[in-house]
Write a structure and sequence with these properties.
290 residues; alpha/beta; D-Maltodextrin-Binding Protein, domain 2; Alpha-Beta Plaits; 5-stranded mixed β-sheet; 8 helices
């Protein structure tokens, strides 16, 4: 049986990735003693590898495809095909930022103030490229982790990944600038994509993962309403295109169904009730394929 070799990121993205695959219809089970997770798809062979290493393994062909951040694709300079932009991170759905930060009260207020200073980061190449564009000469050194704890005793500044900035604030650091915004990407080996079967399999995987992400911020709602109330009720239901309307056994009543933003449901449902809706049901979604 033919298989694609897929890299699943080990570490901070691991649980979020496994949950995303679950929403996409795949069950991945990780053993404490194995770097070969089990997946309920006989056409996929998974390996658990740090996100930092996945782009190079994909470029080399050791993996047909894998998931890694845009930041690590740039840092490694890997020549890979970005098949899908999957906007999720270790804490939820959205982008992460690589930011330049310094201690509060340091007197440094812009990147220009880092001239001749020492900066710690895991993303050395990306940070050096940024400083070059800004025409700032600074000493950039690799950090093995806990980067925010190294200022001001060991270094003058850091370039670190953040989602909310709360950890930086807790360590009394202020952000000078955003170096880049990063999202998780499904990347593929260019030679693998020349194989028709592998290209189709990787494409199907991208479709399902994107569908799971699209569904994450949406919910479905169903309700019954008298025909005479449809016109005043329809504007209250923002759908992807338009609500689905079905005739009920009572010819004076119809059923409406739509997908809406999850955050808007708490304001929509009371309005629907006041407009004459009955039997309102909210339900979760796994995938939306547009």
């Amino acid at each position: 049986m033919r298989k694609i070799k897929l890299g699943i990121p080990k570490g901070s993205l691991q649980e979020a990735t496994i949950e995303l695959f679950k929403k996409a219809g795949f069950s991945i089970v990780v053993s404490d003693r194995s770097y070969k997770p089990a997946i309920d798809d006989e056409e996929i062979d998974c390996s658990l590898i740090r996100a930092q290493e996945i782009p190079k393994y994909v470029e080399r062909g050791a993996l047909d495809a894998g998931l890694s951040g845009k930041d690590w694709i740039l840092e490694t300079g890997a020549d890979v095909e970005e098949v899908a932009d999957l906007i999720y991170n270790k804490t939820g759905f959205g982008k992460v930022r690589l930011v330049l930060a310094v201690p509060e009260g340091s007197g440094m207020n812009s990147v220009k103030d880092l001239e001749g200073k020492r900066i710690a980061t895991e993303l050395v190449n990306v940070t050096k490229d940024y400083l070059k564009r800004k025409r700032v000469n600074a000493n950039v050194e690799f950090s093995w982790g806990a980067t925010e704890a190294k200022v001001p005793e060991l270094v003058d500044a850091i370039a670190d990944l953040t989602v909310t900035g709360s950890t930086l604030k807790a360590n009394r650091l202020k952000i000078l600038d955003t170096i880049l915004e990063s999202t998780t990407r499904l990347v593929a080996n260019r030679s693998s994509l020349k194989d028709n079967w592998k290209r189709q399999k990787i494409g199907e995987l991208a479709l399902l993962l994107n569908g799971a992400i699209a569904a994450k911020k949406k919910v479905g709602i169903k309700l019954n309403v008298e025909r005479k109330n449809i016109e005043k009720l329809l504007p209250l239901i923002p759908g992807l295109k338009s609500p689905t309307i079905s005739q009920l056994s009572n010819k004076n009543w119809v059923a409406l169904e739509a997908m809406v933003d999850e955050k808007s449901v708490r304001t929509i449902i009371p309005k629907l009730k006041r407009a004459g809706a009955q039997g309102i049901v909210e339900y979760s979604l796994n995938k939306i394929i547009d």
